[in-house]
TrEMBL record:
One of its GO terms (biological process) is L-phenylalanine biosynthetic process. This is Bifunctional chorismate mutase/prephenate dehydratase. It catalyses: prephenate + H(+) = 3-phenylpyruvate + CO2 + H2O; chorismate = prephenate. GO terms for cellular component: cytoplasm. Residues 3-93 form the Chorismate mutase domain. Pathway: Amino-acid biosynthesis; L-phenylalanine biosynthesis; phenylpyruvate from prephenate: step 1/1; Metabolic intermediate biosynthesis; prephenate biosynthesis; prephenate from chorismate: step 1/1. The lineage of its organism: Bacteria, Pseudomonadati, Pseudomonadota, Betaproteobacteria, Burkholderiales. It comes from Pandoraea thiooxydans.
Length: 360
């Protein structure tokens, strides 16, 4: 049986070896051209990273893909190819909510690829500070969850910071209950980020009501604590389990099976139109009847679709609010530009957080 299998596989493996050699040569040819592109960018003072261009490359390949590779696999492969080529010009420094093993890290890799200089940070505030200070080129922060809603600290910092949004990542969130032993024997508490605890609260109440729930700075920090204390369980994903040597006591304990978190990429890059973009704004109006309707009326009149509307207290003590709004399209689009011009005239405060490619 083994001899027959080897005989049948030998010519197929030989074909794969030949193709691998061809791929290696082509990848290095592509990398050499990417270096030439880098020299042109450097001479003209253009940024190394152009997310809209990379998304257009992937979209074009997906449109011409005849299989059997699926489009998601194709996207992941080309993301890493472009990331490695980019790093030949200049490795990007990317800050995210750490430590290693968080969903923020996963979102950062999903957007930039793995050929980056990682900068895990202890808090969302620290991510913003690292990018503002120039210690990191970009930051990746969670902004909203499909179950628990907006991440308030991120919204507050987007209001205060000079940084803008240049991209987004929508990540499926699958929470696992992790322990050293793979069961709950001797476990007395569960540690996780407050959002994760909230996203799993019904499952915990029904299946592990005896566990004390302890909020920590990140799910990865909870996993780290569980890795050194057998009485502690963590709520985290597969990456954290592998990183900290934990076993899955129960998989997929999130209350919403379609749980997703949206992350935004922050920095100073002004992203060009990609053909499938959205623009994020922060607005406020005077406290009078009909003010919000009057503010948003130009969007409807210009045919602009609003995909998100979130209100946050202005913390002035006067019952004033800021409105976080996402609209479809790039601010360079004529109808978006027209609507924004009117919004700026009507609003008491208007900040364009950025126009950037929508998550695919």
């Amino acid at each position: 049986m083994a001899d027959e299998l080897s005989a049948l596989l030998a010519p197929l493996r030989a074909k794969i070896d030949v193709i691998d050699e061809q791929l290696l040569q082509l990848l290095n040819q592509r990398a050499a051209v990417a270096l030439e592109v880098g020299e042109v960018k450097k001479r003209l003072g253009a940024p190394v990273f152009r997310p809209e261009r990379e998304l257009q490359v992937i979209a074009r390949l997906q449109d011409s893909n005849g299989g059997p590779l699926g489009n998601d696999s194709l996207s992941a492969i080309w993301r890493e190819i472009m990331s490695a080529s980019r790093a030949l010009e200049k490795p990007l420094a990317v800050a995210y909510l750490g430590p290693s093993g968080t969903y923020s890290e996963q979102a950062a890799f999903g957007y930039f690829g793995r050929s980056v200089q990682e900068q895990p940070c202890a808090s969302i505030d620290e991510v913003f500070r690292a990018v503002e200070a120039g210690a990191a080129d970009f930051g990746v922060v969670p902004v909203e969850n499909s179950t628990e809603g907006a991440v308030s600290r991120t919204l507050d910092l987007l209001l205060q910071s000079p940084l803008t949004i240049s991209g987004e990542v929508a990540l499926p969130i699958h929470h696992n209950l992790l322990t050293l032993s793979g069961n709950l024997a001797g476990v007395t508490s569960v540690c996780a980020h407050p959002q994760a605890l909230a996203q799993c609260q019904h499952w915990l109440s029904a299946n592990a009501p005896q566990l004390e729930r302890r909020a920590v700075s990140s799910n990865a920090e909870g996993a780290r604590l569980a890795s050194v204390d057998a009485t502690v369980a963590a709520i985290a994903g597969d990456a954290a389990a592998a990183q900290y040597g934990l076993q899955v006591a129960q998989a997929h304990i999130q209350d919403d099976p379609h749980n997703r978190t949206r992350f935004v990429v922050i920095g100073t890059l002004d992203t060009a139109p990609s053909g499938r973009d959205q623009t994020s704004l922060i607005l406020s109006v005077a406290n009078r009847a009909g003010a919000v309707f009057g503010l948003l009326e130009p969007l409807a009149r210009h045919g602009v679709s609003m995909t998100r509307f979130e209100s946050r207290p202005a913390k002035s003590g006067a019952w004033e609010y800021y409105f976080y709004v996402d609209i479809e399209g790039h601010r360079a689009d004529p109808k978006i530009a027209g609507a924004l011009a009117e919004l700026e005239e009507r609003a008491a405060y208007c900040k364009v957080l950025g126009s950037y490619p929508q998550a695919r």
